[in-house]
Every structure is written in C-alpha cells, then in structure tokens.
C-alpha cells in the first residue's frame, strides 16, 4: 500500500517536471546492461601482438553477444580463443562471444582474448589504450584498457 502511494506521487511529480523528458530515455539506456571490469593489455616488446583482457558483465534479462572489436590505437583487433589440444595450445578466431543474461564472461590468459596488432603509435606499460566493443544490442562500449608489462598482474 505504501509503495503504491509512493509511485503515484512520483508520477504526479514527473508529469509536472521537464526533467521527466530526459529521465525516461536515461532509464532505458541503463537497461542496455553490459559493463566492463578489469580491462588490461599484456604488453610485449618489439611490437609483438599483445593480448587484451576484460570481464563483461550483463545485468540484463537477455543474452548479449560481443560481435566485433575495433581500436584507434591498433590496426588490427581480433577476438581469439586459446584452445588446448593435448600438450599443445593454439589460437582460433571467434566471431562472437555471448555474455549470458545476469551473468558475465571473462577474457583471460589461456581463454578468450583480444589480439591487438599493428600498434599505430608507440605503446608502453603504463599507457591506456581504447578498444571499442561492439554488442549485438547495438551498443558500443569504448573501453579504456590499462597497458601492463608481462611481469605485472
Ligand atoms: Cu590470439
């Protein structure tokens, strides 16, 4: 009962306020649901390809796929998965990675990773690079990645 009264009040306030017009789209955008955590790049010397790692979290009710990646800092960015084959490991390209509803997926050493090649400028540990994560719901997350040396965690 108390809750109902409260929401009636909110509706009334809302209808009298211009702020309402901007409030509604903001609430919908929040539904988009994917956020990133712990984004970092394992830097290697001599312009070698670097691995990018990040955790994607989905607060929404629907699965969302990561469908493409791009960066202004690298000429080539790909989604890879390390697959072990008995005693050997190889990397395969992946077209998409699903972030399950109310779940998360991690890009981490030994599993999914971003393969970052052809750096467009000098990149060194301590730098921040940006990778755009393109999602199946139409969102693009321009995500800052901290560049770390292999010795750092
Ligand atoms: Cu790779």
Automatic annotation (TrEMBL):
InterPro entries: LpqE-like, Lxx211020-like, PCuAC_sf
Listed Gene3D superfamilies: PCu(A)C copper chaperone (2.60.40.1890)
Keywords: Signal
Signal sequence residues: 1-29
UniProt cross-references to Pfam families, sorted A to Z: PCuAC (PF04314)
Alphabetical list of SUPFAM superfamilies matching this protein: DR1885-like metal-binding protein
PANTHER family hit by this protein: BLR7088 PROTEIN, COPPER CHAPERONE PCU(A)C
Name of the protein in question: Copper chaperone PCu(A)C
The species this protein was found in: Paraburkholderia dinghuensis
């Amino acid at each position: 009962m108390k809750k109902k009264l409260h929401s009636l009040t909110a509706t009334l306030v809302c209808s009298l306020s211009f702020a309402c017009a901007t409030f509604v789209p903001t609430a919908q955008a929040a539904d988009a649901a994917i956020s990133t955590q712990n984004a970092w790049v394992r830097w290697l010397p001599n312009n070698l390809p670097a691995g990018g790692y990040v955790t994607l979290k989905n607060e929404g009710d629907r699965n969302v796929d990561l469908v493409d990646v791009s960066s202004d800092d690298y000429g080539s960015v790909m989604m890879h998965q390390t697959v072990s084959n008995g005693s050997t490991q190889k990397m395969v390209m992946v077209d998409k990675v699903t972030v399950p509803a109310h779940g998360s997926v991690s890009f981490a050493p030994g599993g999914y990773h971003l393969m970052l090649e052809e750096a467009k400028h000098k990149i060194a540990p301590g730098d921040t690079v940006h990778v755009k994560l393109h999602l199946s719901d139409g969102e693009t997350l321009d995500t800052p990645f901290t560049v770390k040396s292999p010795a750092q965690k």
